[in-house]
Amino acid sequence: MNDLETFREQAHRVVEMMVEYFRNIEDFPVKAQVRPGEILDRLPHFPPEKSEEMDQILRDYGKKILPGMTHWQSPNFFAYFPANSSFPSVLAEMLTATLGAQCMIWETSPAAAELEERMMQWLIRMTGLPASWEGVIQDTASTATLVALLTAREKKTGYRINEEGYSGNEKFRVYASTETHSSIEKAVRIAGFGRKNLVKCLVRDDLSLDPSDLRQRIEADLRRGYTPLAVVGTLGTTSTTAIDPLEEIAAISRDYGLWLHIDAALAGSALILPEYRWMIRGIEEADSFVFNPHKWLFTNFDCSAYFVKDKEALIHTFEILPEYLKTPTRGQVNDYRDWGIPLGRRFRALKLWFVIRSFGVEGLQAMLREHLRLARWVSDQVDQDPLFERLAPVPLNTVTFRLRPSGRNEEELDPLNAALLEAVNRSGKAYFTHTRIKGKYAIRFMIGQTHTREHHVIAAWERIRRTALSLI
After folding, report:
1. CA–centroid distance for 443 within its chain
2. What is the structure's pLDDT at 181?
3. Same domain, 244 and 135
4. Residue 2 confidence (pLDDT)
5. Closest listed residue to residue 207, CA positions, set 449, 436, 456, 447
6. Residues 449 and 71: beta-carbon distance below 8 Å
């Protein structure tokens, strides 16, 4: 097991399997075509007592595991938001696994800490975020949002709750739109605010947060003795990629002294395009911002870029210094374990470095612009086809629509569209997911996968249309 030459042979074989996987990925059903429990039934109930040969393990991987995988790296993956990869990112992940470093503080791997610092500076320059801000890599936007709300809580209370716990009199309120991601509610729960203290504001016709409703709800809470604490604005909501009006929300946050956190998990990547910088007008008034290079910058999951205006508030919220973590370099360097929840940290900056250098900013911009162009093409097809109805604007790379043939009443449309989605996904040739928009069942056509090209999008739309005709 520890023989280096054997490892070399096995590693070469695994690399060949990786190459064949990417070469043949379009031959796999995009969505796993297995029933619940089917993979479990193929796996032994007890672990082996004796060592097993790697040849057998790899054969079982091909026979028992791959059939139960949904292939997120398929160019025919149009579901959810992407969890992207790319060849340079995969190579970096291989090296990260080889190093096996625990990058909790500068002393445990100086290069990891300093590369992370530089990558955050690169992203600030690439996206147009304020140059005075500082960043750190978190695992996900969900974690980053929790970090933001905990920091807001501690800064508001002079870091008292970390010391003493809740008194029961705080009555904090957090505001977001009805279209906000479920991770906001989870963060509110974990932070101890209580789900009922997440105030969901109305949205405008374009499904972005309505600033006038936000202001009215804050005023009403103040009259009732609540303490407004934070606002979460979203750039690129999950259902429709709606863009909350940051400049107006920022002004309201300033008026009431609220922490403003911006969740741009998907859409933040689009800020590398100068023509999309309008999304962050007013960003100087925000306190924190997160986006995920692992969504739309072709970097393996997990890699979430979290930026803050006041790093001292962040560090003061999370730092704990037991004797065994004291080092002579403390205060001279960034010890990123103080910038978030976990002590242990992976070397995530390496894959980001590989990706940005391999594609270059211009290469990344070209790929995003192509995805945006293809989304506009899909939107045009929906608008021009009398069988379909688009249900929301398309500011980015996701088109939401439904089948709406003439002569069908509203009660028939939800089950009809659910049947359409199920039939397309069951084909294995493409994978889509759904949402609800103003109560209506909608199919989401998301274009952002690394390897998706125009012919994949055209074929997917034609499949939707052919399947729709077979159902009506």
Report:
1. 19
2. 93
3. yes
4. 72
5. 436
6. no
